[in-house]
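Two proteins follow. First one:
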Amino acid sequence: MPFCVRALALPQIRALYAERLSVDFPPDELKPLSAIEQAFARSAYACYGAVDGDRILAYAFFVKLNEHGRRLALFDYFAVDRMLRGQGVGGRFLQALIAGPLRDLSCVLLEVDEPACAASPEDQETCLRRLRFYLRNGLTDTSVTATVYGVTYRILALPVGTVPDPAETRRVYAALYRSVMPARIFSSKVIIH
């Protein structure tokens, strides 16, 4: 299925949030739309879609930060239309992002649910499948984990710029979160291991 990667405008972001994010992600992982809109207005957020005509086949939302001339990003949301999962769209979209809008960034991090913290064997298999997907598509395990709002994530890095060592991964990860989260919430809801 052919598609092109496009930056999404605020009306598309709002529609995706209402129609898809609330289905694709559990409530405890969804930030308020107003937080996304505010970050987007400050150029601290970017959203891309794998688009075929008017249809968004997959989407990726990012927190962005310019830090001393380095351009950093953290995947906030990444999902493929439920009807297209397992057909290679996600891998092709991820590769298109790496080769396109993410290629000139200094560091791009991604959170994936930590399989060891899954609530059930079925959830653990889902977490392992996601982890294998990202590793198969060239991401590197940084050996850093973090617990955000009670959910434990393994932190991966995209093969763009440089893959940071664990200390730098922790620093960049914290800087990205601090750029979009009030300090009191960061200190109480984000634990970087």
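Second one, unrelated to the first:
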Amino acid sequence: MYQYKFDKILHIKEREKDEAISVYNESVKNFEEAAEKLYEFLKKKEDLHAFQASKLTDGLPVHEIRHHQHFLAGIEKTIEHYQKMVVNARGKMVFYQEKLMEKNVEVKKYEKIKEKDFLSYKENLKYLEGRQMDDISIQQFMNRGS
């Protein structure tokens, strides 16, 4: 019966890899959410500019222009906030992606070691079976010779 000597370590490394996948997927989700919010506010800003431009051609009271400018300033602050969030989320996502790749490499190393160890085990088993067959043949020959 084959028993891999680093089996427990391989299981630990696989569990670490699974945790890294989970953390990476969460960072991707956070990045996508922040990017979607940023897109929404950029779209609002664009729509507000288009609305304001259409209203200016028709004539717009000064207090409405001020109102739009204040609203636009608020949107721009929000956009800046979400831009920072997107940059931070992207940085975390890249960091966790690198960690995931490292964990993946570690697991692959242990799997490769296991594969080589199993091949060595099979070769050793064949060798032992061959020796056993030789011993049986020698015993049969000796029994016939007596």
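SUMMARY FIELD: The first helix runs from residue 7 to 58. The radius of gyration is 34 Å.
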